[in-house]
Design a protein that fits this description.
By secondary structure, the chain is mainly α. The protein has one domain. About 60% of the residues lie in helices and about 5% in strands. A 3-stranded antiparallel β-sheet has the order 1-2-3.
Length: about 230
């Protein structure tokens, strides 16, 4: 069999098989295309699914950088899988909302490391986290489309808690609202929310955790699909 004969739905591991039907096939099909081209050859298929040694990789013109790639590639999927599961939680509480945003943002961190390494083949040590960070930041010098989401993640993790609200207009008891991505900076001071002269104006800058997560999910997955289409 050649690499393109393998399919995630039948030849992937349990997470890959699940994700193919959950969202990859519809929203991120290039994940499979790259998996066929770059992951399958690094494994021992058709005799097994483990990984080739450095000596075995060398016989087909591959090396440790290719091994590094497939590990990062799979890590992107795992982050997306967790975020996807959080999308199914209704209502979405603060803990799971924060976890989902962290996972989506982490997927972009790993993806940008991949893209940075591919842009300058062999320039970054495959087993150095410091070098991975450098690859990511070098790539982001000209690709900052998702920085708003990462800023939001950073404030959720490293900053103070946001003032959450209960939506008086939704008609749903206990619907928790959070500042929208890109609007959170304006509400760091809780008094801005509590003493705002126009509560309706504040509500416009807030949304349910699920709605915010859906927007972030679409932006991240669109970025990944577009970027993965360009991977040779």
């Amino acid at each position: 069999m050649v690499s393109t004969d393998y399919r995630l739905a039948t030849g992937g591991d349990d997470i890959e098989k699940a994700c193919w039907s959950l969202f990859l096939q519809q929203d991120f099909p290039s994940y499979e295309t790259v998996w066929q081209k770059r992951v399958v050859p690094v494994t021992t298929r058709p005799s097994g699914t483990w990984f080739k040694s450095n000596a075995e990789l060398a016989t087909i013109g591959l090396d440790e950088h290719d091994m590094c790639f497939i590990q990062l590639h799979y890590t992107v999927l795992v982050h997306l899988h967790v975020a996807y599961k959080c999308r199914t939680i209704h209502p979405l509480d603060a803990e799971n909302f924060t976890h989902a945003i962290i996972r989506l943002s982490s997927a972009t961190d790993v993806a940008d490391e991949i893209l940075g390494r591919l842009a300058r083949p062999g320039s970054y040590d495959p087993w150095s986290e410091r070098e991975g960070y450098r690859a990511r930041e070098d790539w982001r010098g000209g690709h900052r489309q998702l920085q708003e989401i990462r800023n939001y993640r950073n404030r959720l993790v490293h900053g103070r808690m946001y003032m959450s609200l209960f939506d008086p207009l939704s008609g749903k008891s206990g619907t928790t609202l959070f500042p929208k991505i890109g609007r959170e900076q304006g509400y760091l001071d809780w008094r801005t929310v509590v003493h705002h002269p126009s509560p309706k104006a504040v509500i416009l800058d807030y949304a349910t955790g699920h709605d915010i997560l859906e927007e972030a999910w679409k932006r991240v997955v669109t970025y990944l699909e577009t970027s993965w289409q360009m991977i040779p």
